[in-house]
Write a structure and sequence with these properties.
The protein has seven helices and four strands. It is of the alpha+beta class and 162 residues long. It folds into three domains: 1-36; 39-91, no CATH class; 99-156, 434 Repressor (Amino-terminal Domain). The chain has a four-stranded antiparallel beta sheet with strand order 1-2-3-4, with no helix packed on it. A hairpin with a 5-residue loop joins β3 (22-27) and β4 (33-34). α2 packs antiparallel against α3. The protein starts with 5 loop residues before the first strand and ends in a 6-residue tail after the last helix. Mean pLDDT is 80; it is low at 1-5 and 29-41.
Length: 162
């Protein structure tokens, strides 16, 4: 016969039960008992379809972040990460920035000012006109910004939304 441990704690109308099989809780009288499901029951890998499943999967990923390389937990982390990534791509897509936002972001990253961009534009005034949405980017400007600042061409080719 093995060792069996059980502990109950009453907190007003709530009761928390601790045992070797996990944690349970109950509220009110006998007819209103609700046990918490075990993590292994809740957290079986599957395609995420709801925000609740997504939140639970994020918690699972967080709990596995300290997995040792090559361990079973690391494989589980990779699987859960893929499931979370797929859900995010479908339900929380991140749009590309507009071309002007991308230029301004690169300027901030590199510590550049408008006058530093003059070499990518045909004239000094063009920088201000483009950044203030008064003139669209030309194909030559797009090529120059892409090669000079490394801004992806597909981002620069988008239509500006002012």
């Amino acid at each position: 016969m093995g060792l069996y441990y059980r502990k109950s704690v009453n907190l007003g109308p709530f009761r928390v039960n601790l045992s070797k099989s996990g944690i349970g809780y109950s509220v009110g009288g006998r007819s209103m008992t609700k046990s918490m499901p075990q993590p292994s029951e809740v957290m079986k890998p599957k395609i995420l379809k709801t925000e609740a499943e997504y939140s639970a999967a994020l918690a699972k990923v967080e709990s596995l972040m300290d997995a040792n390389p090559g361990s079973k937990q690391e494989e589980e982390l990779e699987l859960w990460s893929l499931l979370v990534e797929r859900y995010e791509q479908e339900h929380h897509p991140i749009d590309f920035p507009g071309p002007i936002e991308a230029i301004r972001f690169r300027m901030e990253q590199e510590g550049l000012r408008q006058k530093d961009l003059a070499k990518y534009f045909p004239g000094k005034n063009r920088v201000s006109e483009v950044l203030n949405h008064k003139r669209p980017l030309s194909l030559g400007m797009i090529r120059s910004l892409h090669h000079g600042l490394g801004i992806p061409a597909h981002v620069l080719l988008q239509e500006c939304t002012a």
